[in-house]
Amino acid sequence: MQSSQRTHRTSRLAVAASLIAGLALAPAAALAHGAMEVPLSRIYLCYKEDPQKLKGSYDGVPTGAPPCIDLVKTSGTQPLYDWTEVNRFDADGQHKKVAKDGQLCSAGREKYVGLDQRRADWPTTRVSPDANGKFTFRFHATTPHAVKYFRFYVTRDGWKPTDELRWRDLELFATMKNVEAESDPSQSYGQYYNMTVKMPEGKTGRRLIFAVWQRSDSPEAFYSCSDVRIQSPKSATAAAADAVTWDEAGRAVARNDLPAGTTVTFRVFDAKGGDVDQIKVKLTGETGAATLWPFALASKVNDVSDAFQIGVETDDEDIAPEKSASENRVWRSSDFDGYSYAIDVDTP
């Protein structure tokens, strides 16, 4: 009996030791790793929109960028809380094999399929190369790893965000090797890979930038898609000559259609919070559509306001309204530093 007990006890200890050894040898597959922060990748954008707001957890009404809302409807909030893990453990440089055409943004993973949505209303980030045509990409690495390379691709001329994204739609324009992670004292966690690269000539306007991070200490690779608007490089002379610059101050987003008779008011406040201006538009049954009323408001604001403009930057670096529910940005003039705004909606 005692011998039997010793045998069972020894067996249990052997199993426990085996489990511990297995845990010690297992790769750190569950660790977070990172995402492209500048320009903002789709996964990081949706995470920053607040997964619970996208789900409608607070008042039952989902709010945020429409593609992100639909991502949550399809896949839930977990992919966004795992925003650092758009990866493939089996990549080992075989990126076209693991992330096939139509599945590049999701890295071929069902969990992140919402990132592959073919639609025109993915919010964009402005990419403004310097006078030498260079731009600094910033990858937020919550867990840095040894870098074999970062590769940067841009979509070809003629590609649209409503098209399937295929490898033949991409053009490689930069490769960065052996990049070292850097700390940022202003941030509470993680490190950053800052990479200044030469942007491709002639590739301006709306594009998608696809990036691949291949580790050198593992077959694992990470993938990201950033929707961008690339500006033409501005010469140093032209930049110095500009008396006024426009800085992005927010977004003019339509959550839903508005009924005829609704008044939308763009309110301007000075640096002390005092009322400066009220710019109103009254909507009709047609202009109340979610894709149209931001355009109507922006057109009016741009006509009468010196402090703010609404729209997207064009290739000529003008600001033009778009007929879109989510693309229009609010821009503040450098002459009105400290000014703020609010958009009030008064339905009948």
List SSEs in N-to-C order: HEHHHHEHEEEEEEEHEEEHEEEE
Number of strands: 16
Provide the CATH superfamily of the largest domain.
chitin-binding protein cbp21
CATH C-level label of the largest domain: Mainly Beta
Q: What do you see in this structure?
A:
The protein contains eight helices and 16 strands. With 348 residues, it is an alpha+beta fold. It has two domains: 35-236, Distorted Sandwich (Coagulation Factor XIII, Chain A, domain 1); 244-346, 2-Layer Sandwich (Alpha-Beta Plaits), CATH 3.30.70.2150. The strands form four sheets. Strands 2, 3, 5, 6, 8 and 9 form a six-stranded mixed beta sheet that branches. A hairpin with a 5-residue loop joins strand 8 (205-215) and strand 9. The model is unreliable at 1-32 (pLDDT under 50).
